[in-house]
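Handout, section B. The chain below has 336 residues.
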Amino acid sequence: MISVIIPFKDDHYLLKPVLDAIGDEVDEIIIVDDGSQQKLELAQQDKLGIIRNDTTKGVGYSFDQGVLAAHGDVLLLMGADVLLKDRKWLKQAVLLSKQYPKSIICSTCVGIREPTHDWVGRTRRYGADLLFKVTKADLPATSPCQEHEEYFDILQSKWRWGKEQDTPYEVPCVLGAAYIISKAWYLHIGGWGYIKPLDGLTREEKKFCGFKSWGGLEPMISLKSWFAGGSCMVAPQWETAHMFGRGEHATKVRGKRWDDYYFNKLFIAYTLFPEDQAKILDEHLLKWSTQNKARLMIKRNWNAIMLEKQFNDYIKENDIYLFKERFNYAVDWLKK
């Protein structure tokens, strides 16, 4: 049984073509309304369920809530701005999930601006690399961040291009907003932080036990899968289209909540890496003062951070050196 989880915020106009592209090839669709200003109105369907967050709590929280409500043993995690090209491929996706029960499998992805199936000639992306320490030199020339005199970031995904083949293969990081994963593996790695017991935390700390509104979603779930003894893969024959920059989480949250973005990055560092490595990543961000508010959020909610780290350490089987062995990554960043 396959359950589709789709978080959205005020993306009403995008949902119809997204749902039409899914069709009847799934057993269940759960839409998570992340605090939209207008109430979502959809025709009643047996397979369709809607969860409404009372306020905007972020994509990670919304995915976690959708997964907890899902009945399927296989999950398709999707953005509200993603179109499936071939809905019949979902049956193959279920088989892949059973073949690779400890993997997150992403589709290939093309970029579009409108909900259309005219994808001919568009460049396909095949998952992503993972950049641990980022400067302006690592960014494409067209990136808006090139306008800054200085730019420092950590734990950023970077599209992979090319490699077409018939079978799925490993990639450092999933990307593209369409992911197949078994529910058992999702629960094992703890999702984005909101599905574990939260005993002992204050009401305020519970708000910071997982991802905030936007940013760093794929690096975290990818690292959690790798470190827990699983993997990340791309399925070259599975193609989707992503309407980049169209969703409300992208257009509104990005412009207003950079503190959440950098909180998420530091949250990854302090919950998935040993303390000395986390501090190296933190110090890289310290070079840019705009992250100071995020750092203060981390300090104030240290108990929630440590609870997540305790969970991750308990299931941990691999460390950062796995990326050197599998993908020939340099680990010089481990040195200050």
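Note. The chain has one domain: 2-328. Compare this with the example in section A.
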